[in-house]
Amino acid sequence: MSKTKNRDRDSFNVLDVVRIVGGLLLMNAFFSWWFTSTSTWGYDGKWINTGYLQFRLTNGYVNLTQDELSKYNGVNPKLPIYVGVNGSVYDVSASPSIYGPSGMYAKLSGKDCARIYITGCFGKDDEYTHDLRGLDVEEADNDISSWQKFYENHRKYWYVGQVQLQEVKTKIPEPCEHVKAPGYYDHKKSPNKH
């Protein structure tokens, strides 16, 4: 009987593995809090966002109509907040104070406002459209590409899919003096400014 007890003590089982891993995780959490006051060693990116992890696990890419996209404007707290940039849709739910109903960029939420990313004419309601007619093609391509990279490389935002843009048949918006969006030149240097 004593030989059986000795063999049990000498063997390594699942419970021992759980104890070791648990101890290492506890030590990691303690030192992380001690040195950075966070449990993630100061990391604050999308990989600790449960919404992003769920999106990655389910591969939940969307293909929306413009009407469907309009529901993701931050008004319904059960839905994420999306912005569209020339057909590409990005989840910006991590910044409700910026893109939510009372945020400074609330008018961008739930829409594809590609034009405004080029002109920066936030005071003109007819600029909040995906209509790029009448704009310099090279400037439009450069600015759209730059903003799409901004959202794709941001530490808190991510690409979620496409919006099907309808052909615009209304009058081309009147020209405005192009004023690049606040932070435009900063985001070209660092994709994590806001």
Explain what the structure shows.
By secondary structure, this protein is an alpha+beta fold. The protein folds into two domains: 2-36; 46-189, Cytochrome b5-like heme/steroid binding domain (Flavocytochrome B2, Chain A, domain 1), CATH 3.10.120. It is built from eight helices and four strands, in the order H-H-H-E-H-E-E-H-H-H-E-H. It has helices at residues 2-10, 14-36, 50-58, 66-69, 96-99, 114-119, 137-153, 184-189, and strands at residues 62-65, 82-85, 88-91, 158-164. A four-stranded mixed beta sheet has the order 1-4-3-2. The longest helix has 23 residues, at 14-36. The model is unreliable at 189-193 (pLDDT under 50).
What's the arrangement of secondary structure elements?
Blueprint: H1 2-10, H2 14-36, H3 50-58, E1 62-65, H4 66-69, E2 82-85, E3 88-91, H5 96-99, H6 114-119, H7 137-153, E4 158-164, H8 184-189
Parallel strand pairs: 1-4
Antiparallel strand pairs: 2-3, 3-4
User: Radius of gyration in whole Å, from Cα?
Assistant: 24 Å
Query: What distance separates the N and C termini?
Result: 67 Å
CATH class term of the largest domain: Alpha Beta
> How would you describe the shape?
elongated
Per CATH, the superfamily of the largest domain is Cytochrome b5-like heme/steroid binding domain
- Tally of DSSP helical segments: 8
Topology pattern, helix = H, strand = E = HHHEHEEHHHEH
Strand order of the largest sheet: 1-4-3-2
Category from helices, strands and their pairing:
alpha+beta
Give the number of domains: 2
Q: Would you tell me which CATH topology of the largest domain applies? A: Flavocytochrome B2, Chain A, domain 1
Task: List unreliable stretches of 5+ residues.
Answer: 189-193
Q: How many E strands? A: 4
Sheet having the most strands: 4 strands, mixed
The percent of residues in helical segments reads 40-55%
Nearest-integer average pLDDT = 85
